[in-house]
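Hello,

I think I submitted the zinc ion job twice by accident. Can you confirm which output corresponds to this input? Input:
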Amino acid sequence: MLLIKCPWCGERDETEFSYGGEAAIKRPLKPKDLNDKDWADYLFMRKNTRGLFLEQWNHSVGCRQWFLVERNTVTYEIISTKRMNSDALNSEDSQ
Amino acid sequence: MQTNRLNQGGFIDRHKTLRFTFNGQSYFGYQGDTLASALVANDIKIVGRSFKYHRPRGIIGSGAEEPNAIFQIGSGATTEAGMRATQIELYDGLVAKSEKGWPSLSFDIAIINDWFSKLFGAGFYYKTFMYPAKFWKIYEYFLRRMAGLGRAPKQPDPDHYSHQNIHCDILIVGAGPAGLIAGVSAGKSGAKVIIADDQAMFGGSLLASKEIIGGQSSEEWIASQVEILKTLPNVTCLPRSTVFGYYDYNFLTINERCTNHLSEFTAGKIRQKLWRVRAKRVVLAQGAFERPLVFPNNDRPGIMLASAVSNYIHRYGVIPGKNAVLFTNNDSAYQAAIDIKTAGAQSVLIVDSRSEQPSDMVDAAKKCGVELQFDAVIRNVIGNKSIKAVQISAYDASDNTCKDKAEKRDCDLLIYSGGWSPAVHLHSQSGGKNKWDNERHCFVPGKPSQASSSIGSCNGTWILEDCLKEGITCAQEMVTNLGFKAVDMKLPSSKKTKINPMMPLWQVIAKDSSENLPKQFVDYQNDTTVSDIYLAVREGYTGIEHVKRYTALGFGTDQGKLGNINGMAILGQALKKPIEQIGTTTFRPAYTPVTFGVVAGEDIDEMFEPTRKTAIHDFHADRKAPFEIVGQWLRPWYFPEDNEDMLSAVSRECIAARSSLGIMDASTLGKIDVCGKDAVSFLEKIYTHDVAKMAIGQCAYGIMLGEDGMIKDDGVMARLGENHFYLTTTTGGAANVMSWLEQWLQTEWPHLDVYMTSLTDHLSTIALVGPNSRRVLQTLVNTDLSAEFFPFMRTCKSEIAGIAIDLYRVSFSGELAFEVNVNSNFALHLWNLLMKAGKDFGITPYGTETMHVLRAEKGFIIVGQDTDGSVNPLDAGLGWLISKEKDFLGKRSLERADSLRKDRKQLVGLLSVDNKSVIPEGAQLIEKKATSGPTPMYGHVSSSYYSPILGHPIALALVQSGRNRYGEKLLAVSSDAKAIEVSITKPIFYDLKGEQQRVE
Ligand SMILES: [Zn+2]
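Support: Only one job matched these inputs. Its output is below.
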C-alpha cells in the first residue's frame, strides 16, 4: 500500500486517497472552436506512461484537497507531491 | 493408542490429555501437540486423498509446507476449511475431517482415476469435460464432490475479528535463531521492534534440535532470549502470527490467531487479528523449506521430510516409524536419521546418492548405529495405503541414472530430503528478485527493492553460527541507520559442523525404462507428476509460467512451497537448459491462506455500510412503512393503512396528493450551499441553463452534464443572494456531485473564489403537495404565500412556531407544492405540526412509490433510472434547458457527430394498448411483426407504474428516434412476462399544460 504525502496533511495510507488520473490536462478555453477530433483527444485520450508520470490525487477521506503526484508507474515510487495552485496549472479565467 | 508416542521429550504436557476426532473416530493427544503430531502419535497413516488421482496420502511435513493433511475443522457456523494439520494446535474437543476422500478415506471411488490415469495427464481440465457442453452440470457435480476443496459455513460467522494499525522501526519476520538474536540486538538499542512468528513458540528450527549455544541447550537459549525480549518495553512479540503480505512502502500484514488454539467456540473474544504494519525496516528471517526428492511412488503414506521427523521427535515426543530408510542428497538430513535412531528406532538405513566422503555427520550416524549406503537411490516404493518396503538401486552420477537392478528393503517410514529452499516468498512479494545459486542449489534473495534484509536460512545461510552472526550484524546496521546506538553483542558459540556439499538430484531416472516408471510426484497438492511436465514440453509449453498453468504446478493453497523448485529443475532437464534460465516464479500474498473473517475485521454489517435515517424516521417507522434503501438512506416506500396492500396504499396516497394534500419526507435530497464572489461564473460552467440571469429568490430546475455531454445529475437550484446559491442533487448522487464540483474547482478553476458546504444532513426537507397545500401552510406562516407574492419557482425565508425555515415553491409532482427546509433537529417537530395543521384536509403522508408515480405521470425523469450515462439532454427532451450563449461542461460534446445522430434513443411515453397491463421495467421494445435474423431492439422501458388518477398503466421508455414515432405500436418483451403491445406517446400523461403547479 502506497504511503502518500498529502501536501496539506502529511503522510497517509493510500486508502485515504482517490486517484484522478493524468494531471495537467487543460480544459480548452473555447471548446466550440475545436473540431471533433481535437475535442475527443481532450475528452478521451490519456497517456499510459511507463516510468515517471504526473498525476492527480484527492485526499478524499481526509482534507478533500486535490494535489499533484509525480510517481514512477513501474516501481510505484512517489517522487514528489505538491499542492495544486493556479501558478502550477498556468490557468486563466475563461470569462 | 498413541503407539508412536515417546515416553519423554518434546514440548508437550503428558498430564494434559486432549480428546479429538478425525473423520468421526476419537483419538487422544497432549497439550502442546499439533493436530498433525497427534495423528502421527496415533499412527494415522492416511490423512487425505490426492486431488486428481485420489491416491491415499499421509503427512509429509510439520509446518506451512504440508500439502496433504488439509482438513475441515469444526462444524456449523465456526467451521474452517483448508486448514493444515501441521499448523493447528490441538485443543480438547477438536473435530477434524479430511477434505478429500469420497465416500471414505480408505475406499475412495475416484481411485479409478489413478487406474485410468493416462486420461488425466497435464491439461486434463482443458481437454476433458469440455464436450458436450450440456453435460457440464453433470461433470461439475462429480468434479466438485471428488475434488473436495472444503466447505464454507452456511451460517454467518459468529466470531469477532479485529484490525490494528501499528508503526515500528524494525519488523522481524520469524523468531528462529537469526530472527531471535536480531530481535534482542535491535531491541536492546531502544528501537521499536515487532517480532512475529507463525508458531506458538519462538525458536524456529532450534525447537527441533539439540544444539549447544553459548554453553546453553537450545531450549535454554531460546528461553533466555525470549525473556530478554519480554522485558524490553519497546519490543512487541507476536507468536501464532503469520506475516502473509509484504506490500509497497514497507507495509506488511500479519494474521495473528488469538484463540484458534483454545477452542472452536470462543465467541466474545477476538478470534483473529489483522496487524497492518508500516515498518521503517524489515528483517526477513523466515527460514527455509526442505525439498522432497522425486522418485517413483514418492507420495505413499509413510514418507516424510527429514526436518519433519526431527520436529516430531524433539518437539512433540513422537516417533513416526520403527524401521526407517532415509533417502538424501545432502548432509543435513543425517540429523533425522540420528534423531530417530537415538529415539529408539529399530533400524535406520541412509541411502545417499553421493559417494562416501569423510564428514562429521557420517561419523555421527555411524556412531549411533545407522547403516549407510552410498551411490544409491530409491527406485520405487512398495505399499499403497502405507509404505511396506523400498527398492534401492545403484546410482550412476556420470549420467544421472540408476540401474534397473534393485534390492528390496522393508521399512515403515521413508524419510527424504532433497536439500533446502530458502523461504524467499516475502522478499519476492516486496518486489525483490531471487537469483539461482549454483553452489547451494537454491534460489536466494537478490537485492532488496525495499528497506529490508534477509538473514539466516531464508538467505541461504545454513550454518547456525553464520545465522546468528547475520542476525546481530543486520540488526546493528539497521538500528545505526535509524539513529539508535547499536549495543555490543557477543556472538554465542555453537558447534562447527563440517558438512559436505549436496548433490543436485532433481529426479530419479532409470537407465533404460524411464517411460514405464510409476508416477513421480512433483506437486502433491495438485498431483503434478514428472511426466506431466514432460508432456507440457512435448505439447509446446516452454515458459515456466505457462507450464505452471498447464500442469497446475504450484497452484495449490501451499503455492508450491515443496514442489516449485523441483518442478523448475525438471522443466530445465526437459528443455536441456540450466535452471537459472528457466526463471523464477513470483510469489504473491497470501503466504499462507488467510480467513475472510480477519480480512473483513470489524468492517461487517452496519460497520461495512452505514444506514442513514432521516430526522423524521421515527414517524415512518411508527406508521409501519416498509423502507426502501436509496444511497444508504432508508426511505419510506409507502404508508399502508389497515392491512392495505401496496397498490391500494399507493393509489390512496396518489389521489390524496392530487385532490387535496400529501406530505413527503424529501430530506435525503443532496443539498449544497455555494457562495463566494465567483459563485455565478462557477455555476455557469456547471449547469446548462443561464445561472447569471436568475433573480435573487428565484429557483430553477438545473441539469449538469459530464464533459461527454451525458446527463450527470439534476435538481432544483436557487439563488439566495448575489453570490449565494443553494443546490439540490439526487439522493444517490449527493456525494458524487459534491466531489465532482470540488474537482473542477480545485483542478481546473482554482482561481475562482467559491466555497461549498454540504447541507444534506444539516437540513431536512418536507414537501407539502396538493391543491390544499397553500391553504394549510398559510395557517402556520406569516409570509404571504399568494401567487402574487410567492409565485411558482421562488424561495423565501420564513418561520413556523418560532422555527426558522426556508420555503421553496417547487414541485416534483406537478401539483401546487411547497418544500420546507428546516434544521434537522426541528424536523420531526415541524413534521408533526404540519400533520396536525393538515388534519382537516386529510393530509396523507406518502413514500417513494407515490413520488415516482406522480413524477412519471408528469414525465419528470429520475437520473439513473430514466437515464444511464448514455442519455444527453436532447435525448431526454430537455433541450429547453440548454443555454445558447455560454459554454458549460459537456456543451461541446452535444455537437459531436454521435450526439447529432437522428436515431438516438429518446425519452417517450408508453401506453398499454389493452389499457390494463403494467409493462415490466427493463422490457425491450421490438417490432410487432416477426423479422428474420436477430430481432432489432428499439429501446427499453425505464419507468412503469399504474396511474391511479388516470386509471390505467403508464410508462417511460428510451426508444430509437422515439419522438418521430408517436402513435406507433411496438411489443414490450421481458423474460418474465408475456409480450405487451404498447403505443408510443409523448412522455407526459397528466395535466399536459402544467397548469396545476403554477396555479394562481
Ligand atoms: Zn490532506
